[in-house]
């Protein structure tokens, strides 16, 4: 059964965040809030956890396009090729925010991402994922939680999410109702921003 932790952005309790960190370090899966929709996350350096994440999405890990959640831009050089000053300035002016930026990947990607030529980077404007990444010491892998409803694309109610994923994840962070508009995906591999999916963020 998934453990439900009520953590609110105004005052995230350190002991609860530490419990999330312990779970991630032990290969667990979490559901967490962001500045867009609720998402599934795990430790990017734990291949077994990444495989579980892929199974939940009903895809093969090598075919997955899980974005990497950072708490700032300091991790960029860990995963991406060197970027132009103009691109860096562009990123800095839009992050933190509701965007996923596609960048050219380098050869130092975690094992589960090996072979990927590009990588999606997210820096959510939300204190809970920022705090999780900061305390964990490195980014987490992430994928949005879709809804089965034909009208509402993304699940917004953490209680319903917890019910659905009860035996599939280890922790559900209840932070109140989420949004139902995902991040805007922007491809920066050419040096010029190209919107791949229009979401919450406006370029």
From TrEMBL:
InterPro entries the UniProt entry points to: DHBP_synth_RibB-like_a/b_dom (IPR017945), Sua5-like_dom (IPR006070), SUA5_domain (IPR052532)
Span of the signal peptide: none
Domain YrdC-like intervals: 14-201
Gene3D superfamilies per record: DHBP synthase
Pfam families reported in the protein's UniProt record: Sua5_yciO_yrdC
UniProt-recorded Gene Ontology molecular function terms: double-stranded RNA binding
Superkingdom of the source species: Bacteria
PANTHER family: DHBP SYNTHASE RIBB-LIKE ALPHA/BETA DOMAIN-CONTAINING PROTEIN (PTHR42828), THREONYLCARBAMOYL-AMP SYNTHASE (PTHR42828:SF3)
Descriptive protein name: tRNA threonylcarbamoyl adenosine modification protein, Sua5/YciO/YrdC/YwlC family
Origin organism lineage: Bacteria, Pseudomonadati, Bacteroidota, Flavobacteriia, Flavobacteriales
